[in-house]
Amino acid sequence: MKTAVFAVTQNGAKLADQIACQFDYDLFVKKGRYDTLSRLNFHDYDSLSNCLKDTFHSYDALIFIMATGIVVRTLAPFIIDKRSDPAVVVLDEKAQHVISLLSGHIGGANALTKKLALFLGAAPVITTATDVNEKMAVDLLAESLNLSMEPFDHLKYINAEIVQGNPVDFFIDQALTNAPYYIKKLQACQIEAKLMEIKTATCFSRSSVILTEQLNIPNGAGLLFLKPRKLAIGIGCRRDTTQAEILQAIQTACEKIGKSMYDIACIASTVVKKDEPGLIAASKTLSVPLYFYENVPMQQMIDLYSLDISPFVTKQIGIGNVCEAAVLLASQSKKILLHKTKLTKVTVAIAWEK
């Protein structure tokens, strides 16, 4: 998880430095508020608000060592959606409390809070209702199993039912790929799921969570569907790279994150590669769509997420990053699972489809 630590005072800078060094996080300190830092590579800033304009969307998690009020007021203009916002954790400069402030489940702020509290000997402050009532939150379950939630606005209703102790049924579609795997995973969370043939939403009599791959089930009230996420693949390659070389690179990249090429939903690249025979053939072999993007939206992704750029690639096609920029556009998600990985004649980046 790409993480940044921010401090505004000298004491805060010392604590931020300690955390950044321990976990290899990026460090941001207000100018003039530090003496000597162990972290040799750090960033200083004049305005926290201006700094966050460039960094909020570039990290999976943000840790602030300052007053919670400062963080709330500064972050307010940047917050969009719990599915895409980074985890936000706040500490006081004496490390007495670690507060999970934003994106506790999906973003991982609650887990990060516990991790930091354990390291610092601090008190973790977690206020999500499911956690304080020691109940399993469905969004946390879905995130741990790499499942998407549809319709997402039903999540709060299901979690509320669980917190209040009302019955919520769990079903697994018997046609779901690897259904026995999901049964075991739910059992490990003390959830007994029923295996059944799921054809329509009319077969559920009360609030239910359904694991399925089916796309044509109408959404009924009180129903939340969990569906296995698919991967978006971003590709950059040399001219005349063969189909076999591209497929081998994709397979190697998928193996690095413990996934299969069968999990792929789409491939994306630069419009410069729209007539690349090997790339076109690879997408046909995998039976997935192939998207090509113009330089302008690709550059927007590079700027927004502060992606690393290659001067050579910039000279060749006008932008300095292909695979990561393309996969961010194709996935509509900022969560890159595998950052730019250089393989034989191919660069690959992987993200979850949103």
Automatic annotation (TrEMBL):
<dbReference type="GO" id="GO:0009236">
    <property type="term" value="P:cobalamin biosynthetic process"/>
</dbReference>
<dbReference type="InterPro" id="IPR038029">
    <property type="entry name" value="GbiG_N_sf"/>
</dbReference>
<feature type="domain" description="Cobalamin biosynthesis central region">
    <location>
        <begin position="137"/>
        <end position="180"/>
    </location>
</feature>
<dbReference type="InterPro" id="IPR036518">
    <property type="entry name" value="CobE/GbiG_C_sf"/>
</dbReference>
<dbReference type="Pfam" id="PF11761">
    <property type="entry name" value="CbiG_mid"/>
</dbReference>
<dbReference type="InterPro" id="IPR021745">
    <property type="entry name" value="CbiG_mid"/>
</dbReference>
<dbReference type="GO" id="GO:0016787">
    <property type="term" value="F:hydrolase activity"/>
</dbReference>
<feature type="domain" description="Cobalamin synthesis G N-terminal">
    <location>
        <begin position="51"/>
        <end position="131"/>
    </location>
</feature>
<dbReference type="InterPro" id="IPR002750">
    <property type="entry name" value="CobE/GbiG_C"/>
</dbReference>
<feature type="domain" description="CobE/GbiG C-terminal">
    <location>
        <begin position="231"/>
        <end position="351"/>
    </location>
</feature>
<protein>
    <submittedName>
        <fullName>Cobalt-precorrin 5A hydrolase</fullName>
    </submittedName>
</protein>
<dbReference type="InterPro" id="IPR052553">
    <property type="entry name" value="CbiG_hydrolase"/>
</dbReference>
<keyword id="KW-0378">Hydrolase</keyword>
<dbReference type="Pfam" id="PF01890">
    <property type="entry name" value="CbiG_C"/>
</dbReference>
<dbReference type="Pfam" id="PF11760">
    <property type="entry name" value="CbiG_N"/>
</dbReference>
<dbReference type="InterPro" id="IPR021744">
    <property type="entry name" value="CbiG_N"/>
</dbReference>
